[in-house]
Each structure stands twice: as structure tokens, then as C-alpha cells.
Design brief:
The complex is a heterodimer. Chain A is mainly α. Chain A contains twelve helices and no strands. The termini of chain A are far apart. In chain B, helix 1 runs antiparallel to helix 2. The longest helix of chain B has about 35 residues. The chains are: A mainly alpha, B mainly alpha.
């Protein structure tokens, strides 16, 4: 009975993380399209939501996706996963509140690392894995996307610079629909798998799935796809505003280049087996498309805040994950700790968002 | 550095990202250039020039479609 309760809590928390992952990362796919009026906002997030949903069904490579290679897998318990998820959700909500695009995957890794560290000590964390899978890609992704987008916008202006602006803008807006779709599909394929992996891990620990063949049941796939699509549709408008208008004021050519170069960098990296953070690439692409036109076109203060959020993602989520694990242990090793933490968080979020709705504001829209 | 990041993979990644990013955006820019020049020349009654740029547009759009299709295969096969 107690393990059933823990399973239900972990599944619900994983789906909640999936939802925040969707609305936090909507901006990667749609911010530039909305900013350049390639698509109306609701159409853009609707398209992104549908393609995230579809993307979740494309690939089911779920095995050991939770911080694989970063923490000792055999030391991870469902309570550690729960605490890690809480750390990731808290970081996603905090960065959304401040309108800062940060990596949901790094937040999840940070949360699990912090919880595992609190539970098992330093031997549970693989420092090399953390360096190779998190810190080195985090350095490469934005820098590479920045340089590629900066060169690409110079080349694009050389090609179309002398033409009438009307047809050029219309053409680039059409191109943005394609690049936004690719971004969304890729995001659904990548990120919904993480939630499926977490739920599969919990089902294995509960004895409902075989450890040697942890293929997720259909209900897991459908619920993870639905959660990320709903989150995407709700839309993290604060981050969309930052990515779309606060870093640079972009024209349709810059919007297409930021997104097209970004999508190309992500897919090239996937092709060579070197997955990069979609958020880091998308943000680097936007900054590069601005800097390629004119260095002063980029609001470097906003860019600096975003980079600071990236640097703090793993330690911040890890701290919350570790604290959450500590709090759950106050109530013993059973289901009571996760139950108390989940109910407290639910009450906190209901109070915050309830007040917002009572004031007549939409759930995630900018004030 | 070599211990924490395979330099060969990184070099491939950088070259691949540059080729893909610049290739896709340049090809799409050429499609827009061709399409706009086609419309202008057709309006001016220059059928030969219009036909040339129509061809350029079609080739560039085909190359763009091929790169999108390649991207989709990466998404579906990873």
C-alpha cells in the first residue's frame, strides 16, 4: 500500500515536471515566430503543442534516461527521483517567474544530483559524467549557436539585402513556420522521453515493469505526451517575451536565422551523438542573429541575466533537490515524507496561482 | 580536455553545425532572392530572366526541403 502511494506521487510529480518543461520551453520554438508576426501567438503555441504531442510518440528510447551517467544508477531510489523532480519543478517555476530561459534537462539533472548527494554522499555523483554531459555542452551550445547565427545573418543580408522588404519578410515568415515546427517536434521527442523514463523507473522499482525491458506502457506514453503538450499550449509567456523581444528587437530574417541556425545546430549535434540543450542553442541563436547585424543590437544586460541563470541551474536545482530529500526523511523512509512535501507544494502553488486568477490574470501571462 | 570531451567529436560537431546552419539559411535566402527576382522580372515582361530565377527558386526550395527531410530523419531515428 505504502509503495503504491509513493508510485502515485512520483508519477504525478513527473507529469507536473513534464507540464512545466512544456510551458518553460515553449519559447524556444515560438518566441521568434510570435515576435516577427510569422504566426499569431495562439496559433504558434497551438502548433507547438500538437507537434510536441506527436514528437512524444516518435521515439521510445527510454532506458535509464534519468541523469544517466551522472549519478550511480543503483543508488537512485524513488524518493531521490521525487526530490530531484521537485528541485527541477522549483527551478523551472523560479526562472519562468523571472522570464529567464534555462534548461529543463539541466534542472532535472541538478535536482537528482542534489537529492542523490544528500541521500548517499559524494560517491553517488559521477563528477566526470557531470562535466561531460552537462558543463561542457553548456559551454559549447550557446557559443556555437551564437557564432553560426551571427555568420548566417550576415550571409542572409548579403543575399536578400537589396530586395524589396515586403516579399523578403513574407518569405522568412513562411520559413519560420517550418523551423518552429522542427524545433517543436524535436523537443517533444527529446523531453517527453525524460518523463517516460522517470515513470518507467518508478514502475520498475515498484515491480510493475521488468528492469531488463522497461518499455513504458501506453498510458505512460499518452500521459507524458499530453502533459508536455498541455504545458506547451499554456505557454510560458514571460520567457516568450524575453526570447522574442527583450534580447534583441528582431526582423523576420533574424527570426528565421536564429531559429533555422538553431535547429540546424541541434540536429547536427544529435546526428553526431552530442545532444545539446535546446534552450541554450535557441537563446544563443537569438543573440547571434542580433550581434551579426550590430553588436549593440543585443541587450547584453538581459543576455547576462540569462547566462547567470544557466550557471545557477544545476546548483540551484540541486540545492532544492537536496533540501526536499532532507525534508522527506524527517518523516521516515515511507510515503509520508513525499506525501507531505507534495501536498505542501500543491497548497503553495494553488495559493499563488489562485490569487493570480482571482485578480483576473491568466495563468502564465505576463502581468 | 580530451578526457572530458572527445576533441574529434567536437570538431565534427562544429563543422557539421556550421555547414548545416549556414547551408540551410543561405539556401532559403537564395529561394527568397530567386522568388522575388522572378516576380519582378515577370512584371517587367522579361520572360527569360523570370524563367531563370524560377528555376533558381525551385532548386533552392528543393534543397531546403531536402535539409528539412534530413532533419526529420534525425529526429525520428535518434
Amino acid at each position: 500500500m505504502e509503495s503504491d502511494v509513493i508510485l502515485v506521487i512520483v508519477v504525478a510529480t513527473a507529469l507536473a515536471f513534464d507540464f512545466t518543461n512544456g510551458f518553460h520551453d515553449t519559447a524556444n520554438a515560438v518566441a521568434t515566430s510570435i515576435s516577427t508576426r510569422a504566426m499569431p501567438p495562439r496559433v504558434a503555441v497551438g502548433l507547438a503543442a500538437v507537434l510536441n504531442f506527436v514528437g512524444a510518440f516518435i521515439s521510445l528510447e527510454v532506458a535509464a534516461t534519468v541523469a544517466s551517467g551522472i549519478v550511480e544508477a543503483e543508488l537512485v531510489t524513488t524518493t531521490i527521483v521525487f526530490a530531484g523532480l521537485v528541485g527541477a519543478i522549483a527551478w523551472n517555476l523560479a526562472t519562468w517567474y523571472f522570464g529567464l530561459p534555462s534548461s529543463s534537462s539541466h534542472a532535472l539533472i541538478g535536482g537528482v544530483v542534489g537529492a542523490a548527494f544528500a541521500a548517499q554522499g559524494a560517491e553517488a555523483v559521477k563528477g566526470d559524467g557531470l562535466m561531460e554531459n552537462v558543463f561542457v555542452p553548456a559551454l559549447i551550445a550557446p557559443f556555437l549557436a551564437f557564432v553560426v547565427a551571427a555568420v548566417a545573418i550576415v550571409v542572409s543580408y548579403r543575399i536578400v539585402g537589396r530586395l524589396r522588404p515586403g516579399p523578403v519578410s513574407r518569405g522568412y515568415r513562411l520559413g519560420q513556420v517550418v523551423s518552429a515546427s522542427l524545433f517543436s517536434l524535436s523537443h517533444g521527442t527529446n523531453d517527453a522521453q525524460k518523463t517516460m523514463g522517470i515513470i518507467a523507473l518508478a514502475l520498475v522499482a515498484h515491480g510493475d515493469l521488468s528492469a531488463s525491458n522497461p518499455d513504458p506502457p501506453t498510458w505512460v506514453v499518452v500521459s507524458a505526451a499530453t502533459a508536455i503538450a498541455l504545458g506547451t499550449y499554456v505557454g510560458g509567456w514571460r520567457i516568450i517575451r524575453t526570447m522574442g523581444t527583450r534580447i534583441i528587437k528582431m526582423d523576420p530574417a533574424q527570426g528565421f536565422v536564429a531559429q533555422g541556425a538553431g535547429a540546424s545546430v541541434i540536429l547536427a549535434a544529435s546526428h553526431f551523438g552530442y545532444p545539446l540543450s535546446t534552450t541554450h542553442v535557441a537563446s544563443g541563436g537569438v543573440m547571434g542573429a542580433g550581434a551579426g547585424k550590430r553588436l549593440s543590437a543585443v541587450r547584453w544586460g538581459v543576455a547576462g541575466n540569462i547566462v547567470a541563470a544557466w550557471l545557477l541551474t544545476v546548483p540551484g536545482a540541486a540545492a532544492v533537490g537536496a533540501c526536499t530529500y532532507g525534508v522527506t526523511r524527517i518523516f521516515g523512509e515511507g510515503a509520508l515524507g513525499p506525501l507531505v512535501v507534495s501536498l505542501s507544494l500543491l497548497a503553495l502553488l494553488s495559493a499563488a496561482f489562485g490569487r493570480r486568477l482571482a485578480q483576473g490574470r491568466t495563468l502564465t501571462a505576463e502581468a | 580536455m580530451a578526457a572530458i570531451a572527445d576533441v574529434e567529436v567536437l570538431a565534427e560537431l562544429v563543422l557539421g553545425a556550421f555547414a548545416a546552419g549556414l547551408g540551410v539559411t543561405a539556401v532559403f535566402g537564395v529561394a527568397i532572392y530567386g522568388g522575388t527576382r522572378f516576380a519582378d522580372l515577370r512584371r517587367e515582361g522579361n520572360a527569360v530572366g523570370a524563367a531563370f530565377f524560377a528555376g533558381v527558386t525551385v532548386v533552392a526550395l528543393l534543397a531546403f526541403a531536402a535539409s528539412v527531410a534530413f532533419g526529420l530523419t534525425i529526429v525520428t531515428h535518434k
